[in-house]
């Protein structure tokens, strides 16, 4: 929401600037609406980018990470329903039973700190976190942990998460539950470079961010280009244990962002 609000505010500002160059009565309405929209979403962006509010709503001292707040339980599993004891009259038309979601423990309102990954790293990935934030070094530690960091890139979900590599349904294998996605890793490299170069970042934290950016960029290049050489394709995602490409291919959409992670000019 923070990034969305800031983006809409900027787009509305651009529309307002363009409207000033036009003529006619219609431009006045466009100009007024764009200015109002820019002002409204700028207020939202200022609110959502406030680090104190972010900490108040989403920081967990116990887990040492940012987390979503909501009605949640990890105690769930998929279970196949019991088959009827009596034979059906038309067994040939009988549908294959589908697994049922079983909740073993009722959900409660809380910070969902049991899982880490791209979601918990968003304040870093989207550069919402101020460079001088006392949380920054702790987040870098989590990013670098074996739970998320691999020699192929950053996992989408930590290995310790209860949902790591768990299927969504019988026919829907894990998607964002562990695999490496290049678009999110690109955001990580870009953000690490940003914090490493920002004058407000403490020297030791900036140095650490710079080293992580170099390591992550090299890991991504080796993984994506290695698979390109081996298979001839860019892939939708990459296995977090082997680095092998998987799912859709060819997939040169956001996977091609690897070219920007290799460039040292991207911040």
TrEMBL record:
Enzyme Commission designation: 3.2.1.106
Single GO term (MF): Glc3Man9GlcNAc2 oligosaccharide glucosidase activity
Topology class, membrane: Single-pass type II membrane protein
This protein's record includes keyword Glycoprotein: yes
Glycosyl hydrolase family 63 C-terminal domain sequence ranges: 38-263
GO BP: oligosaccharide metabolic process; protein N-linked glycosylation
Bias-annotated ranges (Basic and acidic residues): 85-104
Primary location class: endoplasmic reticulum
SUPFAM superfamilies: Six-hairpin glycosidases (SSF48208)
Alphabetical UniProt keywords: Endoplasmic reticulum, Glycoprotein, Glycosidase, Hydrolase, Membrane, Signal-anchor, Transmembrane, Transmembrane helix
InterPro entries with a match to the protein in the record: 6-hairpin_glycosidase_sf (IPR008928), 6hp_glycosidase-like_sf (IPR012341), Glyco_hydro_63_C (IPR031335), Glycoside_hydrolase_63 (IPR004888)
GO CC terms: endoplasmic reticulum membrane
Protein name, UniProt field: mannosyl-oligosaccharide glucosidase
The organism of origin for this protein: Fasciola hepatica
């Amino acid at each position: 929401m923070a990034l969305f609000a800031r983006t809409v505010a900027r787009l509305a500002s651009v529309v307002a600037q363009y409207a000033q160059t036009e003529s006619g009565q219609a431009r006045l309405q466009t100009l007024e609406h764009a200015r109002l929209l820019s002002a409204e979403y700028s207020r939202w962006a200022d609110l959502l980018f406030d680090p104190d509010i972010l900490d108040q709503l989403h920081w967990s001292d116990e887990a040492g990470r940012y987390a979503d707040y909501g009605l949640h339980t990890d105690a769930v599993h998929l279970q196949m329903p019991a088959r009827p004891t009596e034979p059906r009259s038309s067994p040939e038309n009988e549908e294959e039973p589908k697994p049922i979601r079983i909740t073993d423990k009722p959900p409660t309102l809380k910070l969902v700190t049991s899982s880490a990954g791209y979601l918990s790293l968003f304040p870093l990935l989207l550069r919402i976190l101020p460079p001088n934030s006392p949380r920054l070094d702790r987040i870098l530690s989590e990013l670098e942990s074996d739970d998320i960091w691999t020699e192929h890139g950053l996992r989408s979900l930590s290995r310790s998460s209860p949902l790591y590599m768990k299927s969504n349904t019988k026919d829907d294998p894990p998607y964002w539950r562990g695999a490496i996605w290049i678009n999110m890793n690109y955001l990580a490299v870009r953000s690490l470079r940003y914090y490493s170069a920002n004058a407000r970042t403490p020297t030791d934290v900036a140095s650490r961010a710079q080293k992580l950016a170099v390591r992550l960029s090299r890991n991504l290049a080796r993984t994506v280009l290695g698979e390109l050489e081996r298979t001839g394709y860019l892939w939708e995602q990459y296995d977090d244990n082997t680095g092998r490409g998987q799912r859709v291919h060819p997939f040169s959409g956001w996977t091609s962002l690897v070219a920007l992670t290799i460039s040292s000019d991207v911040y």
